[in-house]
Amino acid sequence: MKIKPLLVFALALLAVGILFLLYLLRTAPVAQLNPVQANDIVKTVSDNWLQVLDTASLPEFPYELEYAVVDLKSQLIAATRNGQYESFNHAIRNRDTLVDIEKDGQILGKVVFYNDTAALWKSYRTTLVIACTSFLVLLLAISISYAAYLNHTILRPFQKMRRFAGNIAAGNLDVPLAIDRSNIFGVFTESFDIMREQLHLARESERKANQSKKELVASLSHDIKTPLASIKAVSELMLVTAGNERSAEQLRTIGMKADQIETLLTNLFHATMKELQELTVTVAEMPSKALPDLIRNADYESRVIPYHIPDCVILADAPRLQQVLDNLISNSYKYAGTAIAISSSFDDGFLVLEITDYGDGVPFEELPLLPNKYYRGKNADGISGYGLGLYISSYLTEKMLGELHVKKQTDGFTVILMLRLAE
């Protein structure tokens, strides 16, 4: 059974029921007085008035009219049945018909013809109740049948689709969606199951692509290590033959940078820039006197103004902290190109390093966005980069139990690096 014919049938049945009830109401019984019979009764009572008074009985008629005879004082003389007449006012309220009894131009009394409409309605009401009850029962049966039909053809398929969607959301793409072409959603369920198969294929393609990417990273890392080893070997040879201390210091910096690149290449075997959560950070106690060496390694252009760092012990991972300082100082090189000032202080369990350059910086409204992945400020136009430097630095600093913040100075840009003090 289709929904549209069922709805048409239900509406037609409702219309027929309403019309039937209206018909019953229009044909409801109403007491009507037969004027010929009424006149015959009044005339006969008038002709036999004295007999009626003496015997308190009424003449017999072949009529079914119920009536009573009262005198001029509205006192009952006789009636066709007991209890019919109570009082003159009651007769008026009951809408009884009152006819004067006249003889020789003189009014002798009245004939009260009983209006039995209420009694007829009382008996007719039973018929109405039965008709309405039958109609409601039939309508209820149709409604239950329609509800069962909707449950079978709509609700159950929707429940199956909801469970299917839950499996898809949970990543369980191996559970197919049962297809029932007999219901109105058969085509949709088939389409959803095709979608599941396509998602399964897409996931498998993605897995293979990720696998290929990891293999590519491993291959590139291996290929890069080969020329990197050559650079390290040449720098070590040149260090042996260096003619002055400045050249030797620069060659040692090249060697340390090569070691750092080698460490980063090793990390590429386990993570990519988009999978930073896989980068391991090992926090350990570290003396603050090691920070100048890390800063000097990052400041290969010697732009950092002389500074002082107080003696203390911090919690950090030296290779990761080196990576953070490299990113921060490299950003100053790239976007400011000015001298770099470093100040230090203690604040509530942290060693605070403020790294300040004197470039144009970024607008105040962009400051909260800078640590976001791939975000680059307006001052980055025409400058190569991916918007990952501050994001990586912030991530690694948090892993080392520290904090990283940025602020704009009136004459430059400052990165606040907060390193946790060891207890």
How would you describe this structure to a colleague?
With 423 residues, this protein is of the alpha+beta class. Among the domains are: 35-115, no CATH class; 276-420, Heat Shock Protein 90, CATH 3.30.565. Helix content is 52%, strand content 15%. It is built from ten helices and ten strands. The chain has helices at 3-26, 35-47, 49-55, 88-93, 117-169, 186-240, 245-267, 291-298, 318-335, 389-399, and strands at 67-71, 76-79, 97-103, 106-113, 284-287, 313-316, 340-347, 350-357, 403-409, 412-420. The strands form three sheets. The protein has a four-stranded antiparallel beta sheet, covered by helices on one side. A hairpin with a 2-residue loop joins strand 9 and strand 10 (412-420). Helix 1 runs antiparallel to helix 5 (117-169) and helix 9 packs antiparallel against helix 10 (389-399). The longest helix is centred in the middle third of the chain and has 55 residues, at 186-240. It is rod-shaped and about 165 Å long. The model has no long low-confidence stretch (mean pLDDT 78).
Main features:
10 strands; 10 helices; Heat Shock Protein 90; four-stranded antiparallel β-sheet; 423 residues; alpha+beta; single chain
**Helix-strand sequence:** HHHEEHEEHHHEHEHEEHEE
From the spread of the alpha carbons, the general shape counts as rod-shaped
DSSP E strands, number: 10
Please report the number of helical segments.
10
> Approximately how much beta-strand content do the residues carry?
15-25%
| Assigned CATH superfamily of the domain at 276-420 | Histidine kinase-like ATPase, C-terminal domain
Low-confidence stretches: none
CATH topology of the domain at 276-420: Heat Shock Protein 90
Output the CATH class name of the domain at 276-420.
Alpha Beta
Give Rg in angstroms: 53 Å
> Helices and strands: which structural class?
alpha+beta
Tell me the strand order in the biggest sheet. Answer: 2-1-4-3
Mean pLDDT across the residues is 78
State the CATH architecture of the domain at 276-420: 2-Layer Sandwich
Query: Main beta sheet: strand number and arrangement?
Result: 4 strands, antiparallel
Percent of residues in helices: 40-55%
What is the terminal-to-terminal distance?
A: 79 Å
